[in-house]
Task: inverse folding
């Protein structure tokens, strides 16, 4: 079931994103207990990207409220997810740095969940967790909770074997858009040796602090979105053409990391003022940096036009027959996504789920009609041909 769902989710994410760039796969241990710890900017899409890119079977910790619906419960169980009760979803004051598996005064009891995850780590499996707790759309990493450190230390102690924490940086170029780009970056693992005694609160805090530093090295962090947007304009104007997503994100990360140290410099203040004025101007004109990058000669314009006409002439006859199945689903997901959720960090997940369900229903209806009108074998052959076509690179 896990392999089938992981394959299906891989197909879905390749359709939803224009490009998924994965960096640092060599940092993931092939064997042994592993804890994937990532930032959490885009709701359910975040664990899906790790599941479909890391190459290992990952059991994610998911809030128990997600298991209420039958469909979602079946999917999460198929992916080996472990339900976790969150203090934010319960009444009562939070209790920090409790020992692994303890039931705090707030009534949150995760002893069975911790036991299940410890067993996965002890057997050499992989667990996924988001130490920020809640998905969010803030401009910087939220304060980490201690669950990841407690899991790693407690798992290493119970298994009497080291546990590797692999930090995961997820950076979305346009988090809420369909056919955008995303960078999945796996950092150098933090190897947690088995402690001789149950982990102390000081050890948990120290490991949490180390993980926070590792995640900040893989993510873009800024005090506010206005600064992020201005520095992104600086990055676009500075960077050489045609660089990879990884290099783009690394430039953005460095600009944001060092901006605070020079923000008061009069030259920097003047530069940022000019950049913001430039942003306002190109927004009003409806143009982009790429369009202003350089003038094209008549020959280059002609080559571009011929190339695009050739691509349209080749792909249009192939794509038009499938448009009735795909265009309505994509259009409805794009329109309904922002209206069905009040949280910005869930918009992309809503779009993905709506589009996925509508496309599946459209395919099922098309196959049923073809079966009814032309017979079983015709419907089967048409389905196989369509599946083959979807796997071809575009």
Result:
């Amino acid at each position: 079931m896990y392999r089938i769902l992981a394959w299906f989710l891989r197909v879905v994410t390749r359709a939803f994103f224009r490009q998924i760039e994965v960096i640092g796969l060599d940092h993931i241990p092939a064997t042994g207990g592993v804890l994937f710890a990532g930032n959490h900017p885009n709701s359910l899409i975040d664990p899906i990207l790790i599941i479909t890119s890391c190459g290992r079977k990952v059991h994610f910790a998911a809030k128990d409220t997600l298991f209420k619906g039958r469909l979602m419960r079946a999917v999460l169980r198929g992916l080996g997810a472990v339900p976790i009760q969150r203090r934010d979803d319960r009444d009562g004051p939070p209790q920090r740095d409790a020992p692994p598996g303890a039931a705090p005064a707030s009534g949150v009891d995760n002893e069975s969940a911790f036991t299940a995850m410890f067993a996965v780590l002890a057997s050499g499996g992989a667990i996924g967790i988001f130490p920020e707790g809640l998905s969010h759309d803030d401009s910087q990493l939220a304060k980490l909770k201690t669950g990841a450190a407690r899991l790693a230390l407690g798992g290493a102690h119970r298994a009497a074997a080291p546990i590797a924490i692999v930090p995961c940086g997820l950076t979305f170029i346009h988090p809420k858009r369909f056919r955008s780009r995303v960078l999945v970056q796996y950092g150098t693992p933090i190897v947690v040796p088995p402690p001789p005694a149950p982990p102390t609160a000081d050890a948990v805090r120290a490991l949490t602090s180390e993980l926070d530093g590792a995640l900040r090295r893989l993510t873009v962090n800024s005090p506010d979105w206005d600064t992020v947007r201005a520095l992104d304009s600086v990055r676009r104007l500075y960077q050489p053409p045609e660089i990879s997503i990884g290099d783009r994100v690394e430039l953005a990360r460095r600009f944001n990391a060092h901006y605070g140290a020079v923000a008061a410099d009069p030259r920097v203040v003047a530069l940022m003022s000019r950049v913001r004025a430039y942003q306002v101007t190109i927004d009003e004109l409806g143009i982009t940096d790429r369009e202003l990058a350089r003038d094209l000669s008549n020959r280059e314009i002609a080559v571009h036009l011929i190339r695009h006409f050739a691509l349209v002439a080749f792909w249009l006859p192939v794509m038009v027959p499938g448009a009735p199945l795909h265009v309505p689903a994509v259009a409805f997901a794009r329109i309904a996504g922002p209206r069905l959720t009040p949280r910005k960090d869930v918009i992309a997940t809503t779009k993905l789920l709506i589009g996925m369900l509508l496309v599946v229903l459209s395919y099922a209806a098309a196959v049923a009609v073809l079966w009814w009108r032309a017979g079983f074998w015709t419907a089967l052959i048409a389905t196989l041909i369509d599946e083959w076509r979807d796997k071809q690179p575009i």
Remarks:
- The chain has three domains: 2-91+105-216, 225-292, 320-390.
- Residues 225-292 form one domain.
